[in-house]
Amino acid sequence: MQIIWREIDMKKLTKFDVILNIWVSLIINIALSAVLPALNGFLTWGTFFSGFAIAFPVSTILVFVLPVVSWGAKFASLFKLKPNTPVFTIVSTIVLSFIVGTVMTLLMTAINAGIGPHFLAAWWSCYLLALLTVYLSALLGLFTGLPLTKKMLGIPAEA
Question: How far apart are CA 75 and CA 52, in angstroms?
Answer without folding.
Answer: 29
